[in-house]
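The protein record filed here.
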Amino acid sequence: MKQSLEEMTDPAGLKISSLVKSYGKKTAVDGLSFSVGKGDIFALLGPNGAGKTTTLKMISGLIIPDSGSVTLDGEPAGDQRQRIAYVPDEPTIFPNLSGREFLRYTGRLRGLDPERIKERTLLCSKVFEMDGWLDNRSGSYSHGMIQRVVLSGAFIARPDLYVIDEPLVGLDPPAAETFWRMVEAAAAEGAVIIISTHTLAIASLHCKRFGIIHNGSLLRSLSRGELSRGGLQDLFFEVTGTSPAEVSDFFRNH
């Protein structure tokens, strides 16, 4: 999809230009281009294997693209990792660390002073309801508890760019709603936010813009206001050529 002249000339925010990444004969990302402005919450959507995680890792600087570029405010994003927080789809914490120790370590990597780390950890502990177990070793944590701690590490950093892969896995409804409120607050402060999720109904409520990719290519980019009456789910099925299977007679016939 061609970008407008304004998108191509305005350097503010995140710019993805003609990204390509292959693994052997498999092309995971194929000429991907889109932009996310400051204060935007952008949902990167697609079926399994569409290239979403590879794209997010290239944006974060964890994978080097074969060609193309990623810029943040007009400069290569790979040179600005202190301004980027990345949350993977399968977050982990070293099991002998407590959640608090992990957050302290994350804050120190970001160059935050101890008092600021303590202050922001206290806030995240309160809003994500971690007070009762944050000092326990993370080897005893559930997936949802690990998810809360790792997401808190991103928010403690207060980066200019949040790159978050499947944030809702393991979160109960209150924690999921807290996450979205934190995201919206960060966007209101001018952060660039890109999130990959399979939860289309929730994404359509909280994200401002959407990009649907399949086989590593961008199929559609649109804003929330451009969604038709059928909504994001129907559009997703239409443009990706996917649909849920007919299963109403499965148990009766098999």
User: Anything to note?
Assistant: Residues 5-89+161-245 form a domain with the Rossmann fold fold (CATH 3.40.50.300). The longest strand covers residues 26-36. DSSP finds nine helices and ten strands in the chain. The first helix runs from residue 5 to 9.
